[in-house]
Amino acid sequence: MLDLEVQRASVCLQLPADDEFLRWASAAAPDAELLIRIVDREESAQLNERYRGKHGATNVLSFPFVVPQGVATELLGDLVICAPVVLDEATTQGKPAEAHWAHLTVHGVLHLQGFDHQSQAEADVMEAEEIAILSRLGYANPYEDASSA
Q: Which one of 28, 64, 135, 148 has the largest count of C-beta atoms within 10 Å of its C-beta?
């Protein structure tokens, strides 16, 4: 069973409930422990600059826990999701906000498990996993153009 803590450090009022985050994250990692922190643009931008060397806020940042040798833990790490970016992207991409929150939660949890998209081959594997998980949750393929649906 997933052990999840949700921290809300955003002034946005349109945030999913904790049980939604639990449902989405559990679909990607049913037997794990993680923290999801919901932030605003300033905190996201600071973390993005500090840890990725990139300017500006981003939708989701993943901070995998590096397990010390000989330590048994199910702690995956932390996700930081920027609420205003998620809501802006959902609007711009013509997607329901709930579906975009679900996608970015699943995307981040997969990153915590070692999935990546630095190469096209990695992206293909990660995207296929995201699509399968989101489909089981009842959401459309997030990579399809909303205007073609």
A: 28
